[in-house]
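User: Sequence for Divergent polysaccharide deacetylase family protein below. Tokens please.
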Amino acid sequence: MKLKAVVWPVLFLLAAVFIEASFLSHAAGGAVLTATGCRQLPPAAAAGGGGACAGVVAKPRIALVIDDFGINGRPGVEEMFSIKRPLTFAVMPRQPASRQLARRAAAAGYQVIVHLPMQPFQGKKSWLGPGAIMAAMPAREIKAVAAADLDDIPYAVGFNNHMGSLITSREELLRPVIEEAAARGFFILDSRTTEESRLYPLAGKMGVPCIQRDVFLDDIRTVPYIKKQLNLLAAIAQKQGGAVGIGHVGHQATARAIAEMIPELEARGIELVYLSELVYGRFPGAVKTPAVLTPPRR
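Assistant: Structure tokens for Divergent polysaccharide deacetylase family protein:
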């Protein structure tokens, strides 16, 4: 009798654990939630998994992030606003038109993130703009500059790095920035401006949702080249479930190529989504992440 009194509760507990685990596995399509908040596919489904950690989805998904919003009169801005699909606009802090464009983007249904300037290994300092994170700064100053930058853009829900090959290669310089992102509930996109970037792995260690760029769309600013890159992005998404492409304003070719490619991409069963939907690996049929997730901070 004493043995039965011990064995039955243990068996009941084991059964409950098994049932709960089976339910969670089914709900996630066999995926596992990683430390970064992204769902990792089972080995058979994740072959070749790269930057965009997406869950099991009904169709391949791509997130298009458009950098360099914020400077008045830049070519390509109005063309991007004419694309009526989920896009994510990366807005540079402390620029003349930054806050106005961020509010306009959010009101129009686009997702907004901060395009955080960081020191590169090479390049003109003038390319960074105001509010840049510099390697010579002590940690306290990096933290203060990052906080001001992240708070400057209304409706922002995350950030990616503008330039930043030097900063992103050094964890001690990144840590204060990631801490500020975490304090605001932001996610992070590692633009991967260098193969030595530590932003993605360090954010994962610190428990901050993060994703990596898969393809730069417009290193060559011609419509045929950008279409070729969009096809590459689509192929990656078809292979791993989701992919992130980065383009830029400052010229009109990227907006034109995207607009012309949308019908073809959608005919191939590829869905355009907000960046956050790949970061958080939403389940099939889940409500899309709205573009406006937080009110303006000031």
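Confidence is low (pLDDT under 50) at residues 1-50, 53-57, 282-298.
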